[in-house]
Structure formats: C-alpha cells, structure tokens
Amino acid sequence: MEGVPIQYQTKIMIKHLLALSITVLISIANQTKAQQTIRCGTTEVMQQYSAKHPEYVQKRAEIESRILDFIARGQAKGVQQQIVIPVVVHVIYNTDEENISDEIVQSQIEVLNQDYSYTNPDKGNVPLPFQQYAADCQISFCLAGVDPSGNYTNGIIHKQTAATEFTTEDKMKSSNTGGDDPWPCEKYLNIWVCDLANGYLGYTFQPGADCSIDGVVIDSKHFGVNGDLGGNYNLGRTTTHEVGHWFNLNHPWGNNGSNDQCLDDDGVGDTPHSPGPNYNCKNFPNNVSLTCLNSPYGDMFMNFMDYSYDNCMYFFTQGQKARMVAAVNTSRPSFLEFTNCTVGVGEMEINANKISTYPNPTNGMVNFSFQNELKTQAFTVTLTDVLGQKVYSIHKPVSQHSVEIQTLSLQEGNYFAQISSDKVNVVKKVVVIR
Ligand SMILES: [Zn+2]
Fold first, then answer.
1. Is the peptide bond preceding residue 397 cis, with omega within 30 degrees of 0?
2. pLDDT in tens, 246-301
3. DSSP state of 82
4. pLDDT for 75-127, tens place per residue?
5. Is residue 343 part of a domain?
6. 235 and 110 in one domain?
C-alpha cells in the first residue's frame, strides 16, 4: 500500500477484514447446514401425522396385519409376477439449480430399476455372509407414459414456485400452496423433488395415508445421479430408501423410536436386529459386540434401509422383498394391473436426443448416429413418405454405431424415419431437398 494515504490504508484493511469475516461466517453457516443433514424424515413425519390423524394409526395397524397374514400364508413367495410402477416426478423449483434436468430424472429411474432388481453395478460389495439374503425384488419403475387424462406425457412435470423452500408440512403436494397436485395415488407413484428445508434428504408416508399426501419427497440436490451437488448422497439412494418406505419397509432398527433399542424391529426375519442407524460408511463387520444378539456379522449397515452414504448401500433382502410384494398385493393392488407405463412421447423424446440425423435437410446421404446405450443395441430404421408408404428400410446391427440411407432416388419432400428396437421407438423427420 505504498503511496496510499494512511486513512485509506485503514479503510482498505477494514474492507478486507469485513470480507474475510463474511467469508468465515458463510463457511460456518454452510458447515452448520451440512451438519444438520437428516437422512430420512419418514419416522418423524409419520409420528406427527399419526398424532393428528388417529384413523391413520388404525389403518396402519390393519395394513400391517394384512401384510403379515399375506406373508404367513406364503403368498409372497409364490408371487413371481414382475411389478411395474409408473412414476410421475413433480420437479418444483424456485432457482434454476433446483430445476433438475430430465436426464437426472431418467438417471434416478435407472437407479431404482437397478437397485430393486439387484443389478446395481456395486452389488459386488455385499459382504459374503449377507449375499445369500440379497434379492431381485421383481419390481421395476417407468416414467408414466400416459397422464390421468389419457394424454401422452414423459412423466416429468417442471413447475416454478415462489416458495424458496419447503418443510415436511407437505406444501409441495398442492398447487394451492406453491407445489403441484398429485396424480391419482392408486395409479402412479408421485415423487416431488424440491428444496427441502432443515437438512432433510427425503421423507415418505407408508401405505394408508390420504391420497393427497401419498408419495415420496426428495430434496433436489439428492435426486438422481447428480455429481458433486449431492455430496455423499449423490447416487440416487435417498429415493431407493424412501420408495422402500412407500412399499411399507421399516428401518432395520424399527420405526417406533423405542428407548429399548433392541425391542423394535423392522418386521423382517433376515435383517439382523439393530440398535440404531449406521451413518457414513462403516467397515464390515460393524457393531458385532453391540448388536442385538442375533447376528455374528453385526449390523447390515449396507442395506438400502439403513442410513449409510449412497456409495455404501447395496441391497434389499428376500425378507424385505416379501414385505414389499405383500404391501403391493394388500395395500396398493391397483399397481398389479399396469396400465400407465406405455412408452409415450416423452420417452421417445429422451431417446430421440440420443440419435442424431445429419445432414438434415439432405440432398444425398442421411446418417443416423446412435449415442450412449443405444450404440450397442440393434435397430431397424424405416423411412416412410408423408402418405405412410415405406420407401426404405435398413438394419443397424449391435456392432455398428451408425447407419446411412441414400435419398438420391427420392423426390423432394418430408419423410419420417421410424427407428425401432424391442425397447425403443423413435420417429424423426427427414427433409429431402434437390
Ligand atoms: Zn427412512
């Protein structure tokens, strides 16, 4: 500060000090916020709701008894039918950052499908003694292809709100309170993604709650596979966990919050009793000496219903599967008749982005180039004119990432290329010019 008058030097120093204190304050505030992370608000939210709604307590007791009866009669074991759950995701955002992309939503559906079918890439981390219990739950998820009015949809709603954050009071579940109304709960799993206040990552009502609040709520930073934004909870496992509650699963230590830690249980035989949640990322075996005398291997902290970091939880058990299948059969039976999963325009759009068509318009060759997972799938590309007449067809084998169609013999005009496999169906417009 040579040459600067002394009073200005003081001013500059004060300015720097102020800036420094603000930075320190912000970082303390952030740390405080980080320390408040609450893995799951389900137990607390359900307790508060139950206190005000005795009919929910009654209904929950009936549901529990029906589920136990269903399992006792061995019916869950006999059910081999794949259960498919149509999902509608309500993205409620105030800032651009909260308006998560369709790709992130799509990544969440993929995580759910992997985790519930035990095809998750990290399943090899299940400790050997627990591997015998791991289950393909035979439950899969799709983004809804048809909305409640019968129109095509991609199952994703983006809605801006004036609310800067939401608490666990369910205001995100109604348009009147700055959120978005649910789709009929007997036909869709409603997931609201929004800025959840007070450090909650997510919460859910187990079956029996009123349709207007039934569903799952997830904080927008912790939905889908979202890189750095989600910190230790960035692999979509918050949703895997909360959807487990939606299927009536409990935490391994039970949901009643009893002080006698080994009295409570999750109602599942093959998850060891546990004195309480496991946080962070434990090493196996953990809690062998403290655990409730029922497992030589300690807590099953790597189960999706515990509180570990996203990259440290890997599976549901056969017992949890039986409970979920029983819950669908007894409490959510309409999901056994799957109707709203039809591949709709939305999914076509997402897949269409993975196929580029160039040059378009063209006066000669047109190239169809496939990206991501579509690269290694076989497709048939069929070109039709505006009257629906087939003018060309070509097969793309799994070994080829692109195919070309020669348009020299075609008249000028618009054509439609239907690009289809057994899983994907996309239509693209091709313009031929002369
Ligand atoms: Zn939970």
1. no
2. 999 999 988 765 555 677 789 899 998 888 899 999 999 987 766 566 678 888 99
3. P
4. 655 555 788 899 999 999 999 999 999 999 999 999 999 999 999 999 999 99
5. no
6. yes
Torsion from C-alpha of 159, 164, 169, 175, nearest 10 degrees: -30
- 15 is in which domain, residue-wise? 1-35
Centre of ligand 1 to C-alpha 178, Å, is 25
Please indicate, yes or no, whether the overall pTM of this predicted structure exceeds 0.85.
Answer: no
Summarize pLDDT for 130-158 with one digit per residue, the tens.
Answer: 999 999 999 999 899 888 887 878 899 99
- DSSP annotation of 372 reads G
Residues 25 and 151 in one domain: no
Of 64, 98, 242, 347, the active-site residue reads 242
Return the residue matching tokens 């003018």. 391
Which residues neighbour 319 within 8 Å (Cβ) at sequence distance 6 or greater?
133, 268, 269, 270, 271
Let me know if 169 is a catalytic residue.
Answer: no
CA of residue 238 to ligand 1 center, whole Å: 9
Q: How far is the CA of 202 from the centre of ligand 1 (A)?
A: 8
| Same domain membership, residue 408 and residue 302 | no
- Sheet of 365-370: strands edge to edge? 355-358, 365-370, 402-406
Instruction: Specify the 3-state DSSP secondary structure of 64.
Output: helix
Residues in CB range of 286: below 8 A, 6 or more apart:
278, 298, 299, 301
In a domain, 349, yes or no: no
How close is the Cα of 134 to the center of ligand 1, in Å? 19
For residue 111 the two structure tokens come to 């995580």
Count of domains forming the chain? 3
**Together in a domain, 90 and 57:** yes
Residue 261, both tokens: 């830690």
| 381 bridge partner residues | 394, 419
- Distance (angstroms) between ligand 1 centre and the Cα of 303 equals 11
Beta strands in 108-152 (DSSP E): 139-143
Give residue 130 CA to ligand 1 midpoint distance, Å. Answer: 21
The residue ranking higher by pLDDT, 306 or 78, is: 306
Percent of residues, the chain, with pLDDT higher than 70: 84
Same domain, 271 and 370: no
Say how many C-beta atoms besides its own lie within 10 A of residue 372's C-beta: 10
CATH code of the domain containing 151: 3.40.390.10
